[in-house]
Structure formats: C-alpha cells, structure tokens
User: Fold this.
Amino acid sequence: MDIYEEALEFHRKNTGKIDVISKVGVENEHALALAYSPGVAQPCREIARDPELLNTYTARGNMIAVVSDGSAVLGLGNIGARASLPVMEGKCVLFREFGGVSAFPLCIESQDNDIIVETVKLLEPSFSGINLEDIAAPRCFDIENRLKKETGMLIFHDDQHGTAIVTLAGLFNALKIYKKDIKEIRVVMNGAGAAGTSIINLLNYVGVSDIVVCDSKGIIHSGRPDLNVSKQELAKITNTGNMKGSLSDAVAGADVFIGVSIANVLTPEMIKKMKPEPVIFALANPEPEISPALAREAGVRIMATGRSDYPNQVNNVLAFPGVFRGALDAGADEINMEMKLAAAGALAGILTGNMDYDYIIPKPFDPRVLPTVAVAVAKAAIETGHAPSGTDLDYIKKKAEGISRKK
Amino acid sequence: MDIYEEALEFHRKNTGKIDVISKVGVENEHALALAYSPGVAQPCREIARDPELLNTYTARGNMIAVVSDGSAVLGLGNIGARASLPVMEGKCVLFREFGGVSAFPLCIESQDNDIIVETVKLLEPSFSGINLEDIAAPRCFDIENRLKKETGMLIFHDDQHGTAIVTLAGLFNALKIYKKDIKEIRVVMNGAGAAGTSIINLLNYVGVSDIVVCDSKGIIHSGRPDLNVSKQELAKITNTGNMKGSLSDAVAGADVFIGVSIANVLTPEMIKKMKPEPVIFALANPEPEISPALAREAGVRIMATGRSDYPNQVNNVLAFPGVFRGALDAGADEINMEMKLAAAGALAGILTGNMDYDYIIPKPFDPRVLPTVAVAVAKAAIETGHAPSGTDLDYIKKKAEGISRKK
Assistant:
C-alpha cells in the first residue's frame, strides 16, 4: 500500500483528524449549573462589563482559526473550500500537537476577497488569531493586509511567512558555514508567489540589498508591462541593477538560489555560473528545482529542499506552532517583521556549534524548537511594544517545554 | 461562595470549557506524512472528485456550529456576541457530553440578518449542522428559515424547538394522567417569542385547534394593529374564536397554560377560572409565571417549570443532543416537524407506566434519553424521506447508548 492509499484508509478509519471536546465534566446538576445555566451568566456579565476579560473566562485566548478558500491547496491547485478541509484539519492537528495551540478549520465557500475578509472579521468574538492557508497569490496579500488592519486578531499567512522563516533560518546557518556576510550576498529568487514574496521581504528587512527575482517569464524588472500589483512592488525593492533576461542570466555571480517554483528549472550549467560555495534552496514540491544528486555533481555542498527524505528540509512546522505559541502567550497584538525575524534567528541558533552541510535546519521533532521559537517571538513582541512588558518569558519557556515533552 | 462566584472561578481556572484536539498522533515522520503532506492530498483529490465524500474523510459529519449574535442571551438580554461566548461554549459542552456531537461556538459580530445568514452559509464546507442560539425573536425565525432553504446543513434553533419538544413531551404525559384527548384541549400560551412560536406550531401540527396566545399587550387577534410579521402569522393559526382581552380573559375555560414570558403574571384567581385538572407550564426563568406553592394552593397538581429545583423541569438538554445525534447518524438532510414530534413522543414514552404528577418529564441525567430520542428522530427522518432508507437504527441506538454510558 503506497502512502496515498494508506492516507485514504487513515482518514476514513478516523473520520477526520480533529475533535471539539469538553474540558469540564457535567456529571451532575451542580456541574451543569456551573458550566451552563445559571452559573454561566456571571462570566457573561463580567465580559459585558469589561471586554478585556473575554480570554479570561473562555477558551478564546488559545483558539485560532485555520482559514482557507481552497484556491491553492498543496500542489493540487484550486480544488475549492470543501476539498481543502482534510488539509485544514491536518494543519489544526499540527498546531495542537507541535504548539499546544487550539485551532479550528474554517473553509470559506468564496474566493472573493471582500467576502473572505468580512466573514473572518465577523468571527473575531470566537478567535484570537487567524492562520491563513492555501489562498492563492496575489489575493492572499490583500486578505492578510486587510485583516491585519481591520481586526485585533493575530494574522499570519503560513504559506508566506512560515516558509520564509524556516528558509531564512537555513540561510543564516549556511552563511555561517561559508563565513559570508548576509549584507554582501547576491540572492536569486525563482518564484514570486506567496512564499517568494515573504522571503524577499524578510531578506530585504535584514539588509540583503542585492536580490533578483524571476518568475515564469524571466527576471522581474520595473520595465515589464505584465506585472501584477504585488510583482510591481517586488520590482521596486529588488533588481537595483535593472537586469533583464532569463533565470540563466540572473544566476550568474549569485551566492544563493532560492526556488519556490517548479521542478527541474535549475540546471547544473546555471549553478556553475554562480559564485563559489553556492547555496541552493530548491523548495518546489514534490520535485525540487534541481535534484540533490545533480546539484552535488555541479559542486553544491549546501542544499535545502521541501522534502523529508533529503537533508535540510524546509518544513513550516518548525515555525508556525512556535510563532503562535509565543504571540498568544505574550498577549501580542500582531505578528510583525521583528517577530518573524526573531523566529528565524532562534531556529538557526538551535544548531550553533553543531551544524554541517547537511544540517543547517533543525528537524521537525527536535524538542528544542517550540520553546526556542516561542520565547524569541514573545521577546520580540515585547521589544517592539506589541505585548505587555510584564510578560513572563520564563513561564512561556517552561510551558512550551511541557508541550514539546508531551508530544 | 454562591453559584455565580463559583462559576466565575470555575471558568477562570479552566480558561473556558472547550478545546479542539487532534484525534491522531504525529509522533514520527510517517505519521506526519499520513496526517499532512504528502498523504493528505489523496482525501482532497477524492473529495474534489466526489463532494459526497466530504464527511467520509473529515470530522465534518459529526461537526456542528453553535451560532449566536448575542442578542437574547439567557435572561441577560442583548449583551452582544463577545459576552455570549461563555454560553455558547457551554452549549458545545452539552452537545459533546450529552450527545457525542462535536460543536464549535461561532459568535458573529453582527445583528443584521442578511450578514448572519451569509456568514453561516459561507461556512458550510466546515459544518454539517447549525444550532442557532440566543438570537432574538422575531429575527431568529427569518434566519432559521433562510438557512433551511439556502443550505444543505441541519438547521435547528434550540430556543424555539428544544423548548417546544420538551414541553410537548411533558404535555403528552400530563394529558395521559388526566386522560384528556390532545385534540380536545384548549391551550393558553403566554409569550409569543422564539419558544412560544415553536410550541404553537408543534401543537398545531398535532391537531390542537383551540389555542389562544397572549403577549404583553393581551390576547393576539388578527384585528390588532401592533403585530409584527411572526405574530400576524400566529393570529392566523390561533384564536379561531377571535377572542379579545387580557390573559385573565384568555385563561377562562382553558385546560393548559403555557408561559414562556415573565415572573408572576399568572395568579391563583386566573387558575381558578381554568377547567378542572389544569396543567401549568410556567417556564419563565429564573422566576416562573407562578410559584409552584401558589399554584398548588389554587388546586394545580401537574406543573412544570424551567428550574431544576422544582419537579418537572423543562430542560432543553433532553432534546437537542438526541435530535442532532439522530439526524446526523441517519444522514438526514433536514430537521423537520415530524422529527421534532418524534423526539417529543419518544421523550414522553420513556416514562410510560412510571409517571406521576411530579414526574411527567425525564431527568436530564437519565441514560435512556439520548438513545430513545436519537432513534426516534432518525426513524422519522427515514419515514419522511429525509434520510437514506438503508440507515441502521440498531447501530444508532447502540452508539447512543455508548455515549450515554460514557457520560
């Protein structure tokens, strides 16, 4: 039985992967009077009096929604909201098991941004945070930006920022091994969708000034007439030398290639045009932009992919559980650039003194990941003024360690 | 410490009452590949191919939402969506503990019917059913009707139908004790809100032709210029004698009084104007329309209230868990009049040969309630052509018995 048949049987046998349970027993009249009528009236009155108490008397403080419209699901494309539910349930499982975050899958039957934004906004009484998932670019950028502006919830689009955080962590360590200064490197990015855009924004934020982005039509430059709004924005902050041409032209002299595109677009010949000690992130799934074997033949020693059967897997599960764990526990009011950067730095730092070519990124089951990322994110939230300064980082660490151990 | 202080501490200590958990472990790479990428792609592909498989590969088949806008919460009134969350979490606890139904609280920050209906419709990919809760009349009728028409989900407004089912069950038994034919009785109903309207519709459906309804302004008749749309509908199907006047006029010669109104509006003098062997449902909370002591003095032997500290409590928890359990397990496509009636009959039937004046309604913790109601509802769904005829009632019964035992 292959993994697909096995997964089908697994989903059928369990009838899905999540459940909503009661944390309290109701075995007698008194328990009923506490959990429901008449006792429940009192927390209601308290919240009506002081809306800040909402998370004190309900499960909302640890409750997020995994929201999708099913428009860009895994490698399956636009399969719609209904067919996306198994993925969203899976994401909720990962939030719970890797981060202790309670997450509920909301699949919205519309691919109209106004409708999606309005729907999510209306549900703010039930959720502290929203993890956007598998929503196609460029629509995903607009949804995320509007929800950030128009709600008080934590908003995070994992396809963008989860991938970006883990990629950046791997890049930090690769550059440590090669003793290259991140501010001096030249990066070529192939793919300008959700993940690509967030990676570029993070790189830009940490001071990488030489970035050239390619899409399926070649190098993105401000003279191209076919760019959508989000690619026009990318053209402004990248390609300062105004290069034109193909991916093959772009990679000449680059230190780092990052692909979030499609299989086999990077050739050994292209790699040979890069600077010495090239670093390759070939993140296309399931087939990377170049196979590790071919890359190795072309002289690559440090390479990451999206796959668990090759070294250096860029797996979002290293990021999103800790990002939300830290932000929720700090009582943060947003997930900002500094918090994402802190997550990347913390993730990279786990391997200090212990990394090698095939180990620039921690493994998904490393118990250090959750506490390290959560604390770094919480700390950055406090330092940027987006969480109360009295937040107890030590408590957050101990709690996250407990969650890691339990898994 | 009174119940309110204790409830506050209970909610704070538990930080709310529900949680979303994973039903599957993800302790290694293989488990991750089954629950998430790449294995999860296969159920997605199957559902994309055949949308009927959605509930086969996900938790949706047992997942409902408890939906409120916070406009009529318990006895607290319009406290808004946020402050209603403790009640909605409590309802989800009851669904889980009494019915094995997974329920998630969705508090919608709008009291505009169009917006509420649209929001709920958009979430159909995530839910098999919707339990509307604490939405003010008459808005609740429109929301329920539109959701019934415009979605494929099970739609049930518990404040209406839960109360109606349990009241009807109690009435069936009271009439058995007094050997009165339900088709011959005269019913006076005080209160024409959510519960009152549903009770009237159910009574009407079982053939009670002599019903007079009062609201705070007196008897509802078609000549009154101040009636909203839903009361105009009531005027059409009740008060065939076109009575006018006050509640005191209405009760003269009545067999049954049902109050879903406010405290102390029914006096001993009014009761003395009723037929011999009057039956009183005084369901106002926390103070009934007349106290049991006063009613007893006025000659009442059968009386029900909404309170657990008096005999014959009309508690919705006797109905909604079994209604959804039966409808979900039968694969029903609606919750119709016959199914509600079957629930009432089943509930009444539990006490056959064992009832007395103070025991016309089963107790909330009676383990027979869930299986009996669930099977009756499933059977009615099949008989009305709203569930597949191959449904295995014996399986439904055994499963419900298992849930009752576990509690």
Q: What stands out?
A: Chain B is about 45% helix and 10% strand. Chain B touches chain A through 101 residues (CB under 8 Å).
